[in-house]
Design brief:
Layout (H helix, E strand, L loop, with lengths): L2 H8 L4 H12 L2 H22 L19 H20 L12 H14 L11 H17 L12 E5 L2 H20 L5 E5 L4 H10 L2 E5 L9 H7 L4 E7 L11 H10 L3 E5 L7 H6 L16 E4 L12 E5 L2 H5 L3 E3 L7 E3 L8 H38 L5 E2 L6 E5 L5 H10 L5 E3 L4 E5 L9 H18 L8 H9 L3 H15 L3
Parallel strand pairs: 2-3, 2-4, 4-5, 5-6
Antiparallel strand pairs: 1-7, 6-7, 8-9, 10-11, 11-13, 12-13
The protein binds pyridoxal-5'-phosphate.
The site of pyridoxal-5'-phosphate has 14 residues, from helix 7.
Length: 503
């Protein structure tokens, strides 16, 4: 029997029973041997795709005895750049690179070069970093309800390294606040199943029990189930605006009202929406209010390095007031190294990234973001109409500019494989089986939307006449999503990371 046959026979098992059986089965030598053989097969394929430069560039498993010629180093990096940029420049990539025009990139690179030695940890040496970060936070906060005077004037935050760090910081903040103010030692967070994996990471890192809530038919969290999940240990409720998998918006108003009523925190994950939703609203699109204008919202994550069009490596976490933000900060008063304090997870940080983020926001200005948002939403409408004109396909929920495509009649992963063969780099998702396209400015270039729809039509036509392919990723996706033994899947992912670090 192989893994696929086991999957077929045991997919009905409840998760807890599957975990129990898995633990037992892994101890049987013949089963262990079979799992190892399967792993080996997968790793072989992965190694090939993860290490395409093995025979193209020199390898350096140890330091060169003497420094290499700087020209050679630059030439190698330049060559790798050229090999890697074609796809995303031409709009074949979902998400990932959000702006990508050469002029914008050159500008950010200039700023980075000017500030490459800056470290916000040393605010005395680099007051520029302090200025940039304070202004980034303030600009982002005013996009999300901060006012100059009045109830919302206390909204504050910090710059972090990305959406994941912003989320980790917010969850740690709620844990520490609940411990200090309510004596909660077994904290729980209520999280939609569709919320980003960063919440699961926070749960694992900070020992916060995660209560996962299913979504309803429109791929937004079940609000009644959230209500039922609240107990004395609940510290925070989470909602996405929108979610990564399906681009749908949880009912942030209802959820934040519930949190307010129960005097617990509410976090809007606006990592994807933070620089689209406020401008969509100004443009007159029907978008929900998801920010601090709702009295129950106590924190938000907003990614500057996505639709804020900064270089990779910055995000903003916002809080309703400084008292809440204090639970995020770290201070050490007894360390022989001196008085030490830092706002986020890292110690030393790249001030150049904050400088480039600040510069990106200034260069875009409100008008730039309005134009970008308009282009993205108009392209999204065009592509959504194209998808819906293909009878075998459907869009899950009611998304705006990030949409998941599924099928009731075809194996959607086989369609995804065909799209991959045509050069597209889309995200394969599961539970349910689908793939998604997160539209960026790259897809607003002339002809890209039309190319996407034509390729999708051709891919569907191919899969209709040639179903059941055994090549590509379709069988792997199918197996990985239906295998009842999630520990085996987790082991494969860890081995994948081992391959990443193989020279
Ligand atoms: C909704 C949402 N939240 C959080 C994140 C995590 O962001 P990052 O990859 O910058 O850590 C993402 C990333 O795509 C996201 O889509």
């Amino acid at each position: 029997m192989n893994i696929e046959e086991i999957t077929g026979k045991l997919s009905w098992l409840p998760a807890s029973l599957a975990r129990f059986i898995e633990k037992r089965m892994k101890k049987i030598p013949s089963v262990k041997k079979m799992i190892d053989a399967e792993n080996e097969k997968v790793m072989h394929v992965l190694e090939h795709s993860l290490k395409p430069y093995s025979d193209k560039f020199d390898k350096y498993p140890i330091l060169p005895a003497t420094g290499l010629n700087r020209e050679k180093i630059l030439a190698d990096i330049q060559q790798m750049n050229e090999l890697e940029s074609g796809k995303w420049k031409d709009g074949y990539v979902s998400g990932g690179i959000y702006h990508g025009s050469q002029e914008h990139i050159d500008f950010l690179n200039k700023v980075y070069a000017l500030q490459s030695q800056s470290n916000p940890l040393h605010s005395d040496l680099f007051p520029s970093a302090t200025k940039f970060e304070a202004e980034i936070v303030s600009m982002v906060a005013t996009l999300h309800g901060k006012t100059v005077v009045g109830a919302n004037s206390s909204i504050c935050g910090t710059v972090s390294s990305g959406g994941t760090e912003s989320i980790l910081l917010a969850m740690k903040t709620y844990r520490d606040k609940a411990r200090e103010e309510r004596g909660i030692t077994e904290p729980e967070m209520i999280v939609p199943v569709t919320a980003h994996a960063a919440f699961d990471k926070a749960s694992q890192y900070f020992n916060i029990k995660q209560v996962k809530i299913a979504v309803t038919g429109n791929y937004t969290v079940d609000v009644n189930a959230v209500k039922r999940a609240i107990n004395n240990n609940t510290i925070v409720i989470v909602g996405s605006a929108p979610s990564f998998p399906h681009g749908t918006f949880d009912a942030i108003k209802e959820l934040s009202d519930i949190a307010l009523k129960h005097k617990i925190g509410f976090h809007t994950d606006c990592c994807l929406g933070g620089f689209v939703v406020p401008f969509a609203e100004k443009l007159g699109y029907k978008v929900p209010v998801v920010d601090f204008r709702l009295p129950g919202v106590t924190s938000m994550s907003v990614d500057t390095h996505k639709y804020g069009y900064a270089a990779k490596g910055t995000s903003v976490v916002l809080y309703r007031d400084e008292a809440l933000r204090h639970y995020q900060f770290y201070t050490s008063t007894e360390w022989p190294g001196g008085l030490y304090f830092s706002p986020t997870l890292a110690g030393s940080r790249p001030g150049a990234l904050s400088a480039a983020c600040w510069a990106a926001m200034l260069a875009m200005g409100e008008e730039g973001y309005l134009q970008a948002t308009k282009a993205i939403l108009e392209t999204a409408d065009k592509i959504k109409a194209g998808i819906l004109s293909i009878p075998e396909l459907k869009i899950l929920g009611e998304p705006l500019w990030i949409f998941a495509i599924a099928s009731d009649s075809l194996n959607i992963y086989e369609v995804l494989d065909q799209m991959t063969k045509k050069g597209w780099n889309l995200n394969g998702l599961h539970k349910p089986a689908c793939f998604h396209l997160a539209l960026t400015l790259r897809q607003t270039q002339p002809g890209v939307a039309e190319r996407f729809i034509q390729d999708l039509k051709d891919s569907v036509a191919y899969v209709k006449t040639n179903p059941g392919s055994k090549d590509g990723m379709a069988p792997v996706y199918g197996m990985a999503s239906s295998l009842p033994f999630r520990g085996i899947v987790s082991d494969i992912l860890k081995k994948y990371l081992d391959v990443v670090y193989k020279v």
